[in-house]
Design a protein that fits this description.
The structure is a homodimer of 435-residue chains. In chain A, the strands form 4 sheets. In chain A, strands 3-2-1-4-15-16-17 form a 7-stranded mixed sheet. Helices cover 35% and strands 22% of the residues of chain A. In chain A, helix 4 packs parallel to helix 5 (215-228). Chain A is built from 13 helices and 17 strands. Chain A is globular and about 60 Å long. Chain A is α/β, with parallel strands linked by helices. Chain A folds into 2 domains: 16-72 and 384-433, Urease, subunit C, domain 1, CATH 2.30.40; 74-378, Alpha-Beta Barrel (TIM Barrel). Chain A starts with 15 loop residues before the first strand and ends with a strand. Chain A has helices spanning 95-108, 113-129, 143-156, 180-197, 215-228, 240-249, 258-261, 282-290, 299-304, 312-317, 336-353, 363-375, 408-418; strands at 16-25, 31-42, 45-50, 62-72, 74-80, 132-138, 159-163, 165-166, 201-203, 206-207, 232-236, 272-276, 294-297, 321-324, 392-395, 424-429, 432-433. At the A-B interface, helix 2, helix 9, helix 11 and helix 13 of A face helix 2, helix 9, helix 11 and helix 13 of B.
Chain lengths: 435, 435
């Protein structure tokens, strides 16, 4: 592969120029607005955005999306594929009761190959059409169904991570792994098989959360994460009853985060991602900062399950890695654009009711979180700066008529608030066009 | 018109039977679920929902919507038609700054006939396609543009109220009426003209809010409301800075509500509707209950503009009249289904952060608020009980695939969470099919 700026002159399916109204984040507060500009992609990598096509790229095919907004693909740092089937239902309970009443019974049905196939094909099809290009996904405890999900996702051309879930305690009889050893050995087999079989989607070690995993299992998973050099995803400090139960279960842990830290589930050579962190205190946030953990902010789920309002401004002020998650099906929709809007709303309620020193998030900031912020978990993704993966969306604004002229910034702002998860005209991942 | 139960036997465009999966509210907590049933409508009025077609209606045409959900049309108790053009934008300010920065400049441009025509035709077209059948709408201070809006809405077949806005103080030079007298005389002319000209949409007296209206103007509008026997709509206790400014402007008023009560803008023979009421205290709520005021709960706007979380459970416990409002463009979308979801979310945050004795709202309750609760402002609308107006929606669930069987209740629940404002297959208002 030629290095950036040394384009070889040959074109293939990953080499092209997109012309359109291009927007991307350079930093948390800096939005680049490039009307009627050219985004050059070669070998699946962005080479920059230009007002005119640079001479060295003059031979490339230009795809004309003039008049359309072109933005980086969005990253969803936290969602549960098997829960997609009951999205938008069962919002009348708090987390622990919700898991027992809705999530566990539904997830247990994925031991049935046929049902899993039917449900996951709907999920994979809808995720393909959504604004998400990179995702970090929970499956169930079933290795077979998890492989099936990975196979379906692999074919979409999207990229990301999928985790077979680990659960060996405090789980219903019909949905639990027999022992820590059983859980580990199933996980190791699945890790090996899936690493070999898939390229776009890679395995991520996925202890459901501390409540569902014995100390023994956590220790084994920490060793596996190091041995296989894979990432880890889990839940942290989402809900008051959850944090109280963790205290009971792990009296040795000063803080919830210690139950991941001690077994080495954070702080390895690969980044970990923790969802929610609504109730993470200063210590927990510092530990996450020092260990390069990504925080997946899931504002809709936190409202739906009455968990609370996460103080994202504080995380940003501390310099933490932050991205967004739809958290399907604690959240109902697959659109990270909608999550951006909900992140703004949540930050306003944090400012109003929790701490008025925590300034509400701006549109620029939530757009950064949904693109470059969360995208960093997957490598150089979520921006159009030179060297970033050519993950991009051409947006469909046709359903959002307006009588007045709008700036590029205004068009992006209203797209965040008004779009549904199917308002995407074209989608490319690492230079490959999905549709 | 024959009385209920005494159907004459003749059929016309308003006489038909719809077959489908029918759902409606009988009360705040009772949802009627009628799979594969028949809703009989004659003379634009519902005659009941039946498992089999009653003999007396055997001659009526049956429209077969088997397999589709059929629900009452939704009522939007509060929205601003001229703000629709900037929906989803400018969410970075609190109410008073937001008005001066975004709302007033945009509204002022409706003095231009051509611009108003262009903008209102987009609004009326989108409202027609939305789940709303009845609406209570703010226009601008311009009588001519307001008449134009009413004419466009009249043609859609929707029903409701439109208000020419009154503003004679604390408003920018470019968007204010010259004096209380000028404001009144323009309003009276518009009241006469519009009452004569339109049938589906009727005028409603619309002092913007106390900050924008002098005591003199409020007194005159109170007299006009009585003389013309029309309804009143306004804003109340939405935002902390707003309530503080009202205290300054009206030192004579013990409570914000008194600035509407003393001039007779609530408590007349027609009900008034007050939007927001986030900060209404016990006294204010009691005054509204004693005067039959409707409270328009606008949860999305209250989050977008950082106003706060309205304690709707308290209102319901006190027996107040409550409905929902999208509050476009403090709110971004026209869908009261989405407002239902946001009302649930807001109630969870109220329970979590403000008062844990205020139980979160259920799906049944928010569905009631968006149908029969708010619908009562418009007469007997928002239910399928015998005698109610035949306002109904046939829902389009095709974009919400699922692998498992779902109950009617679950299908309604997910439609509330997942639908966009265009997922409506057919819509009828007072028995007339709009599409």
């Amino acid at each position: 592969m030629p290095a950036a700026g040394q384009y070889s002159g040959e074109t293939d399916m990953n080499d092209f120029i997109i012309k359109g109204d291009i927007i991307y984040s350079e930093s948390l507060t800096e939005l680049k607005l490039c009307p009627d500009s050219y985004l050059v992609c070669t070998d699946g990598i962005c080479r920059g955005v230009f007002e005119r096509i640079p001479e060295e790229y003059a031979g490339l095919e230009t795809v004309d999306d003039s008049g359309s907004l072109v933005v980086p693909g969005l990253s969803d740092l936290h969602l549960h594929a098997p829960q997609y089937s009951f999205r938008g239902m069962g919002m009348d309970l708090e987390l622990l009761d919700w898991l027992n009443t809705y999530a566990f019974p539904e997830e247990s049905s994925f031991k049935d190959r046929e049902y899993a196939g039917k449900a996951y094909s709907i999920f994979a099809g809808d995720l393909e059409k959504s604004p998400t290009t990179r995702a970090c996904i929970f499956a169930t405890i079933h290795p077979e169904a998890t492989m099936m999900l990975m196979e379906m996702l692999e074919k979409t051309g999207l990229r990301g991570f999928v985790g077979k879930v680990n659960m060996d305690r405090n789980s219903p009889d019909y949905y639990v792994e027999k022992s820590a050893e059983d859980s580990l050995s199933a996980t190791v087999r699945w890790l090996r098989d899936s690493r070999e079989q898939f390229r776009n989607f890679q395995p991520v070690i996925t202890p459901r959360f501390t409540i569902s995993c014995s100390d023994d299992l956590m220790n084994m998973l920490g060793l596996a994460a190091r041995e296989f050099n894979v990432r880890v995803q889990s839940h942290l400090s989402e809900n008051r009853s959850e944090t109280a139960l963790v205290k009971e279960l792990c009296p040795w842990a000063g803080h919830y985060i210690d139950t991941y830290k001690r077994p080495g589930l954070i702080g390895g050579s690969m980044p970990s991602v923790m969802a929610h962190c609504v109730y993470s205190d200063e210590y927990e946030l510092q530990v996450m900062r020092d260990n390069g953990v990504f925080l997946a902010h899931c504002p809709q789920c936190n409202m739906n399950l009455a968990s609370g309002l996460a103080p994202v401004r504080r995380w940003l002020d501390m310099g933490l890695n932050v991205g967004l998650g739809t958290d399907v099906a604690g959240g109902a929709t697959l659109s990270i654009f909608r999550t951006m809007m909900e992140a703004m709303q949540t930050s306003r309620m944090v400012w109003r009711y929790i701490d008025s020193s925590l300034k509400p998030l701006t549109m620029e900031e939530v757009f950064f979180l949904g693109t470059k912020g969360g995208g960093a978990f997957f490598g150089k993704t979520g921006s159009f700066e030179s060297g970033y993966s050519a993950d991009l969306l051409v947006l469909d604004e046709s359903g959002m008529r307006h009588p007045q002229p709008l700036s590029l910034r205004q068009r992006l702002e209203r797209f965040i608030s008004l779009s549904s998860s199917t308002d995407i005209k074209h989608k490319y991942v690492q230079g490959r066009q999905l549709f």
